[in-house]
Each structure stands twice: as C-alpha cells, then as structure tokens.
Amino acid sequence: MSSTRYNASTTSNERKRLRDRRAQKNLRDKRENRIRALEERVAHCDRHHHTELSRPREDQNAVDCLRRENGILVARQERLYRIIQELQGQNSGMLDTRAMSTIPIHPYSILPISSNNFPIPRSLTEPRRPSIASMLNKDGNQTSDSSAVGTTSLAGSPSYTVSSTPSPYQTTIVRIAGPPRNFSPHRVVPMNVPPWCLLPYIEFTTVPAIHQPHAWLHYPEAINVCPPFPSPLDLLHGTKRNFLADSINRGLRRYNLRDPECLANGYLIYVVDKWRVSPNPTTYSRLPPFMRPVRAQLEYGHPVVIEYLVWPQLRRNLATLWANYDIVELVDYLACCIKVRWPWFEDILERDHNDHLQISRRFFETFTRTSGWGITSEFIDKYPELLEGLDVESIRYRMDIP
Description:
- The protein is an all-alpha fold.
- It folds into 2 domains: 18-88; 95-395, no CATH class.
- The protein has helices spanning 2-88, 132-136, 220-224, 232-237, 243-253, 259-277, 281-285, 295-299, 312-321, 327-337, 361-367, 377-382, 392-395; strands at 338-340, 349-351, 357-359, 373-375.
- The strands form 2 sheets. The chain has a two-stranded antiparallel sheet.
- Strand 2 and strand 3 (357-359) form a beta hairpin.
- The model is unreliable at 93-184 (pLDDT under 50).
- Residues 1-30, 132-163 are annotated as: Disordered.
C-alpha cells in the first residue's frame, strides 16, 4: 500500500519537472527569437540607412565650406565698396533723391539683388475683401515706389492664387553664415536702384544687448515660408504654425504691452521683416508708406529696432544720433511710451463672414496711419532733441481713462 503511494508521488514530481523544463525551454526560445529579430533589424538598418547617418556630417562640411566662401566674398565686397566710395567722393550730393538707394548690404546679404530666386507672383487676389494696399492709399492710385500690390483680409490669413507665369522681378539674396560683420558707419548711396531693394544699413554687433529680441532675423528661410500676413491671434498669443508671428509675439511680450500696441506693432514688424528677408516689389508694396526707409536709414548704421518706429522723422533722427544714448534704455522708453490712439475697452478684433476673428477694420485704419499713433510726455520730456522736425503737440499722447 505504501509502495503505491510512493510511486504515485514520484510520478507527480516528474511531471512537474517536465512542465518546468518545457516552460524554461519556451522562454529561452522566445528570448533567442527576439534577439535574432533585433539583430536582423540592426543589420537591415546598417545596410539601408548607413548613408543617412553620415549625412549630418556631410551637411556640416558643406556649411563650413559655404562659410569660407562667404567670408571671401565679404572681403571682396568690402574692397569694392571702398573703391566705389573713393570714386564717388564729392559726387554724393548729386544723387537722385527719389531713388534714395543703396546696394542692399545688410546682415543677411553679400551680393546685390540680381538673379532668379524668389519669384514674385503676378496675381494675389482674394474675393470679398478689399486690399490692404487700397486701404493704405485712399485715393486709389498706386504709388510710384511699388510695382506690385498684394491683397489680403484683415484676418491676416488671405486666400490667394499665384500665377504660374514667372515674374520678371526675381531676386537672389546670398546669406552670410556666422555672425554679422561691421561695416563703415556711413556709406554712399548709388543712383538708379529700385526702391523695393533698398535695404536699411543695420548694425547688429554694436548693440548686442538688444540683438537677442530680434534673433528671428537670423532664420530667413523660416521667415520666407511664413504667410504674407499674420493672423491677429498669432501675434497676440503666439503659435506653433507661424515662426515669424510667434517670434514677434515673444519679443513684444517682454515689454508688457497692451493688446492694441502688441497687435499694431506686431503687424508692422511682420510686414517689415517679410520685406527685409525677401525684398521684392510685392513685399515692398505691403509696407505702409510711412514704414518705408528714409535716406538716413540707408546711409547710417543703426540698430534694427529703429526700423519699426512709425514716424519717419524720428527714424531719421535716431539713425544719426542713436550712438549718443544708452540704446537699451532708449528702446525701453520707446516701448512703453509709444501708444495707439484707440479707445479703452473697445474691441480690436471682429468676426468675418466665416465667424473667424480678424483685425477690426477701424483699428486697422487707425494703426496704418501716423495720426493713429502718439508718444507720451515722459519720452518727449526726456529726449526732446530726438523729436526735432516733428510737431510735438500733434504726436503727444494723453491717456484718457474713462
């Protein structure tokens, strides 16, 4: 009897051991199969993607080569520029004042605008909405400074069609890799250059403290793919879909501006920088007339923030006098003292026929005129010499809170 129990117990233990062996064998097989599959995947990646792994190194080598070439071109350009200055000499007073022009030398270009990138669309149309150019030029006549006019809705997201026929106005801008270079503080303006390619003479390296708020200008390729006009919500609250509008929003918010100033300044900065990065008749025509460069901006090196001031005479004064001031303090004063003449608690946005928010038409007409802007007494009292040539009382802003 006891022998039978012993045999039954032995048989049960053997079955358990057999189950354990089978489970361990299955686990080893699964592990080996998984390792084999991973090894095959690694081998496949080595065979088919090895060239892609080495591509960043090749791209870096290409960038280094382009930097060296650009450095050589910059040195040649500076020598040519000195020769031109010596040749023109005393003839600078005979320049065509209507052209107010210069070869477009700025931190992102090293050659004159000449060949064939940036094709300009012949047709930028949008039904049901008036063009911004027609709102800026109330008499309905096209200004002599622009040879192409784009149209948009106030929402800043226009629907437009582009002609497949290439435009005769095509340009190439060669970008300098690496930090911008110092040029002479004053340069001679040559004659007979179209106004749309007259790029202001920007000095970045002399004012590093205020360079960072406009660091987006170092990414012209990202700016080029942004839409022609910004969405007001992107300027007010930022966005991940529009690099330039989001960068401008973050740059302006550091000054704690009210929404009217943030939207108005943001819109003007947007169209100015779109033209600066891609100068052509279309982008130039989108600039309000008072935002187009004056002669002093073309001749004298100055910080980029001066480009965004709405009074041409103030830009003219600052372009020649800014080095006499603490430019960081001056910019901080300008940011808090320049105001849009817009009633408190009145909406700056309205809805279109599709229930989308857009810039209020009346607000747009306000900030696209110099009469719609003012400057507070704090700046007028502190920097009276910078307002020389301006009717101070007409631009003085008095804050009336209801």
